[in-house]
User: Which sequence fits this backbone?
């Protein structure tokens, strides 16, 4: 009788371990990823003058250590350009990090080793106390070839644009 109970217990334990493997999974654990929330409208309308919005944008970029490109930013008034910023490195993580912010061309056939972005922010005055700010991100991924790395532009999903808009709003609300 004890052998029968042990056999039944063992079978039950094995069955309980195998059940989760047969159930469909509904997602992956993603560390350091923000919860899904609606993206801000882009362009975003601020109840501030264009100069105030541009000053806040410059402060946010400085806080995030995103360098402005002064030569390109002086070409057109109200338009700021940044220099490229590397946001991911390494063959193990670059592909998924790049896929999070952009659509990768070539699918899984390429070995992505780095990702970078540069921003363009255009502030257009609607009236003296209202400004429409549009944020554009140029996302690029580097993949390895036989002769070295090659940078390819990847269509943005709006993640980096939204991050900057959220940081600007937070700065205007008095938070850091």
Assistant:
């Amino acid at each position: 009788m004890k052998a029968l109970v042990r056999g039944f217990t063992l079978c039950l334990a094995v069955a309980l371990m195998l059940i989760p493997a047969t159930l469909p999974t509904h997602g992956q654990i993603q560390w350091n990823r923000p919860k899904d929330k609606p993206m801000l409208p882009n362009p975003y309308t601020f109840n501030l003058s264009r100069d105030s919005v541009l000053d806040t944008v410059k402060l946010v970029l400085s806080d995030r250590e995103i360098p402005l490109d002064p030569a390109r930013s002086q070409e057109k008034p109200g338009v700021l350009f940044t220099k490229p910023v590397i946001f991911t490195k390494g063959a193990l993580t670059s592909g998924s990090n790049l896929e999070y912010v952009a659509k990768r061309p070539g699918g899984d056939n390429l070995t992505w080793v780095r990702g970078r972005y540069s921003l363009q922010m255009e502030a257009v005055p609607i009236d003296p106390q209202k400004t429409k700010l549009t944020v554009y991100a140029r996302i690029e991924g580097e993949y390895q070839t036989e002769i070295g790395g090659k940078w390819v532009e990847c269509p943005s999903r709006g993640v980096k644009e939204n991050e900057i808009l959220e940081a600007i709003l937070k700065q205007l609300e008095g938070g850091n």
Notes: Helices lie at 2-22, 50-63, 70-73, 94-101, 159-172. The beta strands are 44-46, 79-81, 85-89, 112-127, 130-145, 148-154. The mean pLDDT is 82. The longest helix spans residues 2-22.
